[in-house]
Amino acid sequence: MVMLADQRSETKSKAQLADRIRELKQQQHAIILAHLYQRPEIQEIADYVGDSLGLSQQAAAADAGVIVFCGVHFMAESASILSPGKIVILPEPNAGCTMADMVDADELRARKQELGGIPVVCYVNSSAAVKAESDICCTSRNAVQIVDSLPEQRVLFVPDRNLGHWVGTQTSKEVITWDGFCNTHDSITQAEIDRVHALHPAALVMVHPECRPEVTARADRVLSTSGMLRFAKESPATEFIVGTEQGIMYQLTKDNPGKQFYLPSPAKQYCANMKKVTLPKLAWALEHLQPRVTVPDEIRRRAVRSLERMLEVSSRRI
Ligand code: SF4
User: Fold this and answer.
1) Which residue from 225, 228, 245, 277 has its CB within 8 A of the most atoms of ligand 1, so it is best to mutate?
2) In the sheet that 48-50 helps form, which strands lie side by side, from edge to edge?
3) What is the distance of C-alpha 190 from the center of its chain?
4) Quick one: which of 40, 87, 123, 190 has the most CB atoms within 10 Å?
């Protein structure tokens, strides 16, 4: 009984907070962007929910004066780089990305020099300073298209070794990888997928390219998060094994009420940083227009070239 009462009051306070957030959003002329790995209640209240590419495009096109970014730090930085005249808020300033922290600008400069100055393709999961040292950015959705768009035959791909490896299997170019990885995706094993597949043999296996090579090699589809949403909707299959962060289950189950989705290792498919933004933090951030994310002008001027070049290539028909 006590638990039921607690749940009711929690639901009520969530609803009240959501109302307050909508009110503040209007007052502050703000837009709320949320990544697909965010908590369900954050995805529910956002104006736009998407993957890194979609969020970058929304940030670049937004006509609101304030962008509230429900995601991790590098995403808010990208929004600030693309929209320097706007206020960019990250409701939880400590929401970082372990993969992005695996490369810094000095190390990258040194490695580029060692390799004779070959072009650097930089996954958006990286700091503004690393983007500033790179020739072009990419997301998991457009990585192959971006690498293929370069005239050079060899590229250095940072920071994700798994995405870089996968891109190398999809292109005729030589892709030299950095030794970074995402804990959440890298920890998904083929054995775990096999175990769930044995229980649901009709299920199609779709995994993110941040997963290990042995996992991507045996999947039915290797897809970005937005690619998974599209594929699950369009496919006649009714069961899917999902190899990415568990936050995506909210949109997958919402969009496909008659279909079943299974996580091979739910406890590991969890990014603690992505879950740091909560409704109370979002409300506070909107009320105070803090904490802000800014990028020093000298870095921004160089980083924006890499991001804009990516957006330009992505907008081409393939
Ligand atoms: S899921 Fe992985 S790549 Fe994405 S924010 Fe978390 S640690 Fe970084």
Assistant:
1) 245
2) 48-50, 30-35, 66-70, 87-89
3) 23
4) 123
Q: Whose CA is nearest to atom 5 of ligand 1?
A: 97
CA atoms of 137 and 22, how far apart (whole Å): 33
CB 145 within 8 A of CB 314: yes
In the sheet where 120-123 sits, what is the strand order? Answer: 136-138, 120-123, 154-158, 174-177
Residues of the chain with pLDDT under 70: 1-10, 12, 317-318
How is residue 26 written in tokens? Answer: 């209007």
Looking at residue 186, its pLDDT comes to 98
Nearest-angstrom CA–CA distance, 288 and 300: 25
Amino acid letter, residue 139: T
What are the pocket residues of ligand 1 if the criterion is a CB atom closer than 6 Å to any ligand atom?
A: 37, 72, 97-99, 125, 182-184, 245, 271, 273-274
Q: What is the pTM of this model?
A: 0.93
Among 132, 66, 124, which Cα is nearest to 295's? 132
pLDDT at 48: 95
